[in-house]
Backbone:
């Protein structure tokens, strides 16, 4: 791809925590208008890679290139605001920076959170929260969008919808998107490239080619849909809120 | 009204107006124990300030700043939970202050006054410290409001969005140190944290925005100071603890009122 479109490039990246190697010799590129999805099991180093990309962490070795002056929109994995802080969704969104107020109504409409704008941030559902965080990232008119598990805590229908929204955002704004996901099946339709990570890059390429790759199959099993199921100690209701798992029910549902 | 009473009220109100909004951040960021640690280091600051001749308030400010910096450094490399670390610092600083006082045979320090406040002994110079420091602290707080709020909600998100988190945090700690130096005379170093926390906690029930909570906290703090001082005159009780009790009574009443929003 044209290097003029190169937004982000990671070369020979190694990160260690207390002598444990979390990332080793990781290579990754991302161009404008491209969606790259990082998948891998829990503890594979996905979030660490995201943190290095964002400049929140320094690698022990390797290089990170970010296009100079690039605006980054970031959607963190979790956002829990203490109930002691009275803050509405609108106020939370306006914290994105100076000069974002003019874009507020446009972004809010695009992401579909207009109905919760004046609700306290702590009172909205898990799915609404994900959209609100996406809106906050978009308010900065980002050239690179970094989404850490954007569908976390959202039910399966909502996940598909959210991934659709993310693709449309790419189409409309032409930004590059780096996304972390547990689950390749749902994200397949809306990603251009997949990087399968387990401390090192196991394999990468188009979603179809990755699912055929032996390294991918070793990690995720070889079922046709290759859904990675992680251990869940709770369930989610239709709003994506966490509900307690009945004691006798084990394994199974992953949502 | 006597001169010393007017000075007491003015100083108390000055401290409350600053402690309210700053206390809101202390409550939102769960930094109550940090405030305690800084205020407990106040006695050491007083002694060092008097020894070196730079004055008690300046001494408090410098010691509080040094402890803030030390805490930031230690928190980065230590594995101890930060409340453990704060507990160690808090009581070490207080004990060190008490021990150093015992060594200073030539230095006469009104220990009880510093520990529990001596608002009726507020001098003209003290009053200028409180008012000048108060205006400065409020101006800085207003300037830092948005970045500070952004860090409070999600630190890493704020960092990615370009907020200089390290600088903002350091200035915030400085502001707390400033309030400690201001409030020492009013309620004493052992009770300062209550002026930060109780009005803010009381304001929460009646607030639907951060700014509203900050302003209400300032107002509730002023009420507590006025009520506490009036009670102290009426029943001849110690002024500092009376102010804290007045704040606690307001908090108790606020919990009885049904929530508005």
Residues:
């Amino acid at each position: 791809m044209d290097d003029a479109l190169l937004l982000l490039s990671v070369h020979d990246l190694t990160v260690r925590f207390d002598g444990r190697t979390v990332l080793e010799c990781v290579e990754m590129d991302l161009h404008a208008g491209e969606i790259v999805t990082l998948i891998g099991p829990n503890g594979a180093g996905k979030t660490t890679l995201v943190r290095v990309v964002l400049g929140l962490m320094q690698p022990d070795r390797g290089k990170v290139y970010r296009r100079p002056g690039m605006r980054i929109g970031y959607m963190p994995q979790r956002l829990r605001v203490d109930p002691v802080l009275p803050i509405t969704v609108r106020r939370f969104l306006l914290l994105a920076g100076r000069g974002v107020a003019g874009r507020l109504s446009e972004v809010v409409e695009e992401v579909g959170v207009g109905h919760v704008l004046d609700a306290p941030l702590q009172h909205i559902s898990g799915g609404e929260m994900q959209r609100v965080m996406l809106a906050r990232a978009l308010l900065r008119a980002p050239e690179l969008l970094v989404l850490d598990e954007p569908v976390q805590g959202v039910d399966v229908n909502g996940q598909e919808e959210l991934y659709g929204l993310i693709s449309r955002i790419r189409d409309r704004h032409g930004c590059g998107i780096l996304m972390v996901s547990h689950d390749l099946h749902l994200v397949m339709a809306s990603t251009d490239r997949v990087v399968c990570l387990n401390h090192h890059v196991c394999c990468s390429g188009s979603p179809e080619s990755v699912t055929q790759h032996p390294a991918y199959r070793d990690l995720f099993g070889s079922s046709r849909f290759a859904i990675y199921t992680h251990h869940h100690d709770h369930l989610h209701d239709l709003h994506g809120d966490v509900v307690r798992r009945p004691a006798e029910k084990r394994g199974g549902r992953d949502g | 009204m006597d001169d010393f009473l007017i000075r007491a009220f003015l100083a108390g109100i000055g401290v409350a107006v600053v402690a309210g909004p700053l206390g809101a951040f202390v409550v939102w960021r769960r930094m109550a124990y940090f405030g305690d640690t800084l205020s407990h280091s106040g006695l050491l600051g007083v002694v060092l300030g008097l020894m070196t001749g730079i004055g008690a308030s300046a001494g408090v400010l410098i010691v509080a700043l040094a402890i803030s910096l030390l805490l930031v450094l230690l928190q980065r490399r230590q594995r101890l939970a930060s409340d453990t670390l704060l507990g160690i610092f808090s009581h070490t600083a207080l004990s060190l202050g008490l021990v150093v006082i015992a060594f200073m045979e030539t230095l006469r320090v009104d220990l009880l006054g510093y520990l529990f406040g001596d608002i009726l002994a507020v001098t003209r110079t003290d009053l200028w410290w409180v008012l000048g420091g108060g205006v400065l602290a409020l101006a800085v707080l207003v300037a830092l409001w948005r970045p500070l709020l952004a860090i409070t909600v999600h630190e890493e998100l704020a960092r990615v969005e370009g907020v200089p988190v390290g600088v903002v945090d350091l200035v915030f700690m400085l502001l707390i140190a400033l309030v400690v130096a201001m409030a020492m005379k009013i309620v004493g170093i052992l009770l300062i944290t209550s002026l930060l926390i109780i009005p803010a906690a009381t304001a929460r029930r009646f607030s639907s925005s951060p700014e509203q909570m900050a302003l209400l906290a300032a107002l509730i703090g002023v009420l507590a100071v006025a009520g506490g001082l009036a009670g102290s005159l009426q029943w001849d009780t110690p002024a500092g603890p009376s102010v804290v009790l007045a704040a606690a009574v307001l908090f108790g009443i606020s919990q009885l009122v049904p929530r508005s929003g």
